[in-house]
TrEMBL record:
Keywords from the named record: Membrane, Transmembrane, Transmembrane helix
One family name in Pfam for this protein: DUF2834
Transmembrane segments: 6-24, 45-67, 79-99
Organism: Rhodosalinus sediminis
InterPro entries in UniProt: DUF2834 (IPR021362)
Transmembrane found in the keyword field: yes
Protein name listed in UniProt: DUF2834 domain-containing protein
Entry keyword Transmembrane: yes
Length: 112
């Protein structure tokens, strides 16, 4: 599990950098217009489908994190929730898996 947590961290970094490149490119071309960006997300049925797919995934992931983190009393892993909505699921999911792997490693070390 030790090496896997670094893969989760690398994927969280990629899930931050890659989408942000495209978002910042859009802002450079269109100005900082959040309403315009949301409108662009719904430019056609295909993009609207992706937006709703990611919205349902984000809400589901958030609920899972809340239930799991509270049950394990791993408060630090709750930091993944703002990344889901501030950056995206592509960052929030691997970041949460990193936190979870870190917590699992600490629990194993304390019992072994």
């Amino acid at each position: 599990m030790g090496r896997l947590k670094y893969l989760w961290l690398a994927l969280a970094l990629w899930g931050t950098v890659h989408p942000m490149y495209w978002f910042l490119s859009w802002f450079r071309a269109n100005g900082f217009d959040l309403a315009g960006m949301v409108e662009a997300w719904h430019a056609n049925a295909a993009t609207s489908g992706l937006v709703w797919d990611l919205t349902v995934a984000a809400v589901t992931l958030t609920l899972w994190i809340l239930v799991d983190a509270v049950g394990r009393r791993d408060w630090l892993s709750l930091l993944a929730i703002p990344t889901i909505f501030g950056i995206g699921v592509s960052c929030g999911l691997p970041l949460y898996l990193y936190f979870r792997a870190r917590f699992a490693g600490a629990a194993a070390a304390s019992t072994g």
